[in-house]
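SEQUENCE-TO-STRUCTURE ENTRY
===========================
What this section holds: a protein sequence and its matching fold, both as plain text.
Tokens: labelled as protein backbone structure tokens, with as many entries as the chain has residues.
Question of interest: how does this chain fold, as expressed in backbone structure tokens?
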Amino acid sequence: MSLVTAEPLASLDRSTLRERALDALRSAIVSGQYRPGDHLGEVELGKHLGVSRGTVREALRHLQQQGLVTTGNRGMLRVSTVSPREIRELFRVRAALEGLAVAEIIASPGKDAAVATLREALEHLADDGDFAAKLEADLGFHLVLCRLSGNSMLVDAWRYLEGRIRVTIMNGEPARNSASGETPTMMSRDRHAPIVDAIERGDVAAAMAIVDQHMAAAATQYAPEDDQS
């Protein structure tokens, strides 16, 4: 297991130490630097980041609340493992949230402006570029979709799941695509454009169905149905 590649935090104002430690640890987990099941030692992390064990402990507690860290044997904290069943549940919840988002966008007086914003987000979903850029563009599109709904509770719910979404994709796509040499299939522009097209037409049923199909395909890709664990 490699150490977090973050600058020491000792020189920061004490009021920001917890937040910066939290950001550094979260980034290390969602980027795949720490893998599911890796042990997160307070002493090791504290020495590397230049903060106290208490600061690390508080940061890890927040990561537990976000579902990124879990308690293992003898109380040791580890990076959470997302099971195939949890992955399928995750994408069903995303389908419900983003289905509601497209319905609210279509019903809003700002639909045309929202479509224009989504078209701009589509332009970032290019086939070239590194994996990290593709991931950010993909998640950026879906977050914009939720924000354009105007429903703050919907956005908060999506952001709560974001850590698990990132871990699922980071641990599913790189190995698959490094072996095949293919562009991440669920991140392509062609996969997302039909959602925007349906919103532009004002077709609620079609937009919700496309979102549902998109999430079902992602669930199948990251957690095949023949894996029932």
Summary: The radius of gyration is 19 Å. The chain has two domains: 14-79, 84-222. The first strand starts at residue 69 and ends at 71. The chain has ten helices and two strands.
